[in-house]
Design a protein that fits this description.
The structure holds two protein chains of two kinds. By secondary structure, chain A is of the alpha+beta class. Chain A has helices spanning 2-10, 12-32, 45-58, 63-82, 84-87, 261-271; strands at residues 102-112, 118-123, 136-138, 143-150, 155-162, 167-171, 177-181, 189-196, 206-209, 221-230, 236-243, 252-258. Chain A is globular. Chain B has helices spanning 2-21, 39-42, 50-68, 73-93, 95-98, 109-132, 138-167. Classes of the chains: A alpha+beta, B mainly alpha.
């Protein structure tokens, strides 16, 4: 017993180091698996609050740009409204909010990152605005990510620029779908994999979200095909998609709430 | 003694805030950011309670992690350099470290550079390998370590020179 205690006292700094190192490794590994990083994230009141006050100042520098974006979107929505009869089949992105399945909530981005391999955004809506995990986040131009953690006032968004992110996506002019992921290199380019070889694909084709997940409604724009090649099995295409959204500058976003999500997932679970 | 404690508390808070609010938005050439918050560990008094020092470094890394949503990678890297710091001090400064009378501002430039460089490179290598967490991307890890490391070392040297000359 004496010897054990002596050993502990002699090596106490090494043991402390080992303990803390293992603890941080534990946090790290947790953050690499989807939906697990509960403790260490920026959607808590301290870091969220600091980001809020800094953002209050930063907002002024982007006022012009943000106004421009809102103006463009207004323009687009108005033209949809005025030409409703002619364009009803053409417009796809935001009019799905008109039927009641999806509800849009506007939010402001407090923190955005795009240089790491696992990127997250922090936004100013949280539990008290009835935001929950697995809600989709988009801008007027395209998709941004999925909410993966909420606190009372803030929420953290798993950006599509995250190596753990998987989004169901398809080509706009055919219904071949695949899954969208990111290889961690360029914030403009994401990868669409598992598109069947039979799909008619051309450089410049649009890629939109597929209706398979309960998170995003079908038809939200993602990007355009930059290049494509067959993978090793020669059965599927690996497609490089250049995003419509500039992920390096995001101000206002919309959160999509799918009212039927629980119902659909309940049905899906019955099948399994 | 008291002033040492307050300096270090202020340094801790200022470095974490500057790191997360300013320096992480630099993204020079796409993804190169300096990580100067390790100045806290570099400049921590040599005569110290080792347990406290390791624990403070852990807190430092964890608070940076909180801001950057990076899990525990900064905490792991910080704890490691805090633990191996005595070895690096001995290697860089030799005999003077034995007498525990180091004043960083009055050291020779070459010795200081080697001390800063070794700590920074260990920290960055660990940081990026944990962040990327993929052995097939080892080239990406090494390039990120090198470029961010150079950026960090330059900034750290500049900051220490600036702030020490004021005190003289």
């Amino acid at each position: 017993m004496q010897q054990i205690i002596n050993f502990l006292i002699r090596n106490k700094s090494f043991l402390l180091f080992l303990l803390l190192f293992c603890l941080s490794l534990f946090f790290t590994i947790q953050s690499h698996s989807y939906h697990r990083s509960k403790f260490i994230n920026s959607a808590n009141f301290l870091t969220g609050g600091i980001y809020e006050s800094v953002n209050n100042i930063n907002q002024y520098f982007n006022l012009k740009e943000e106004n421009q974006k809102l103006l463009e979107e207004n323009n687009r929505l108005k033209s949809i409204l005025f030409n409703e009869k002619n364009e009803l089949k053409e417009n796809f992105s935001l009019d799905s909010s008109l039927n009641n399945q999806f509800k849009l909530i506007a939010a402001q981005v407090y923190k955005n990152s795009y240089s790491a391999t696992n990127n997250y955004l922090t936004i100013n809506k949280g539990k008290r605005d009835s935001i929950e995990e697995d809600f989709g986040v988009i801008t007027s131009k395209g998709i941004v990510g999925i909410i993966d953690n909420t606190s009372n006032k803030y929420a953290r968004v798993l950006s599509i620029l995250n190596s753990t992110s998987r989004v169901n996506a398809q080509l706009k002019n055919s219904d071949h779908f695949g899954s969208l992921r990111w290889n961690g290199v360029s914030p403009q380019i994401v990868q669409l994999i598992d598109i069947p070889k039979q799909a008619p694909i051309k450089v410049g084709d649009s890629v939109i979200t597929g209706g398979l997940s309960t998170i995003f409604p079908k038809g939200i724009p993602i990007g355009s095909v930059e290049s494509f090649k067959l993978d090793q099995t020669e059965n599927y295409y690996n497609v490089e998609v250049s995003l419509f959204n500039d992920m390096t500058s995001i101000g206002h976003v919309y959160i999509i709430k799918n009212r039927d999500a629980t119902e659909i997932s309940k049905l899906n679970n019955l099948n399994e | 003694m008291n002033s040492v404690v307050t300096t270090n508390i202020v340094r801790f808070i200022v470095l974490v805030l500057v790191q997360s609010l300013v320096l992480n938005n630099i993204n020079f050439l796409g993804h190169i950011n300096p990580y100067i918050y390790i100045l806290f560990i570099i400049l921590f008094p040599v005569k110290n309670n080792r347990m406290l020092f390791i624990f403070l470094s852990f807190l430092l890394g964890l608070s940076v992690d909180l801001f950057l949503d990076s899990g525990g990678v900064h905490a792991a890297a910080c704890v490691t350099i805090a633990y191996v710091r005595p070895l690096i001090l001995k290697f860089s400064f030799g005999m003077i470290y034995e007498h525990q009378t180091i004043k960083f501002s009055s050291m020779e430039f070459g010795q200081r550079l080697s001390y800063f460089a070794i700590i920074t490179l260990i920290h960055h290598l660990l940081l990026f390998s944990l962040e990327i967490f993929n052995t097939s991307k080892i080239l990406l890890i090494l390039t990120k370590t090198l470029f961010s490391g150079i950026f960090t070392i330059l900034l750290c040297l500049l900051i220490t020179v600036l702030f020490s000359s004021r005190r003289k």
